[in-house]
Amino acid sequence: MKARRGPPATATQRVYQGIYQAIVEHRLAPGARLREEELAESFGVSRTVVRQALQRLAADSVVELRHNIGAQVPHPDLAQAVHVFDARRVVECDIARRLAGKLSAAQLAELRALVLAEAQAHARGDAAAAIQLSGRFHQALAALAGNPVFVRLIDELLPTTSLLIALYQRGDRPGCVTHRHDEVIAALLAGTPAQAAAEMRRHLNELEASLVGGAESRPLRDVFAAYRDADQPADPAAGT
User: Fold this and answer.
1) Between helices 36-43 and 47-59, what is the axis angle to 10°?
2) What is the pTM of this model?
């Protein structure tokens, strides 16, 4: 989900990005063990590279490093959703307030392109792509606000949000539904700062209200099959 342009990815960045995306796209289940040997084989890298990536992921609160257990995907309880969505409302409603009436035609086109791509992913049944594009929409808004701390906070909150959705979302309630993103854009374009913030709050409130259900695990080799033979796009935020 943290797709950004940059120089060619290092091996550590590639592993970082692969694990991050696997979590936010629900290809790794909450609580899944991240064994260094399996990851090294899956990505075609050394265990040292894997260890470096896991340490960075832990520093970014994306994975947990537990004594005598090793790395694993966090397994947030439903009570954590209150804190996660409280934080997202504080940050993202302020982002919406700051952007209301200030987006250029090119910036609006960028946001609409993400929403269209998300709708197309939903239409063809590509859930992983839809989840990734939904996250990119929220990341794009944070980037447009011009505050790098907002970007970092959203990047840290998205994986936990995804884990909560994987664990607790009702089957009849999709996560970030595309029409809500359209309505956020409409509020940013035509509304006052207060109206834009209110639309973002409504969107996040609906996402939080959709939580209550389960998740299943997949072998690491299957999860990371796409990363064995080719480097992936870089994630400058993950370091070198």
Assistant:
1) 110
2) 0.76
